[in-house]
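Question: Now follow the chain.
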Amino acid sequence: AYEIPKRDWSSDVCSSDLPASILQRVAAGEPGAINECLSRFHGLVWSLARRLGAGPADAEDAVQEIFIDLWKSAERFDPSIASETTFVAMIARRRLIDRGRRRMRRPESAMIEETVSAPGEQADRTEISEAAKVAEAAMAQLRPEQQRVLQLAIHHGCSHEQIAASTGLPLGTVKTHARR
């Protein structure tokens, strides 16, 4: 009869003896871990931000937001579910999609900000200034409640529901004012 040899489990390395990952060290507040995280994942995050962002300035802002969010959510990292690279890429992708959605809600203001921030483009600034004057004149012709709805939507990025709640106007009226 063949006998199965007994294994001595006490000699195995416990999972608690394994070195902590960078994200686990960030979550634990270890000094220097965030710098190591930045140096290791900066290229990945930067390439995603450049690919999914609106421009270089937007990508720089996005990278900063992503690393702040990564620092805040490092304790959620579980090496049994995904690798650190996958976790970082997932966080970055989600933040970039959120930024894109915010930009799509306010495409005119994002376009104006990009144009104004471009150095040496006086002609574009003049066009924007003229467009702003036309918009200001058109806004002045609206009733006060219509102006308020547009100000909340454009300048503050409020949803129709948020505008209705803050102004006391019915939701349908808010949508009509915004559409007109």
Remarks:
- The chain is about 70% helix and 0% strand.
- The first helix runs from residue 22 to 27.
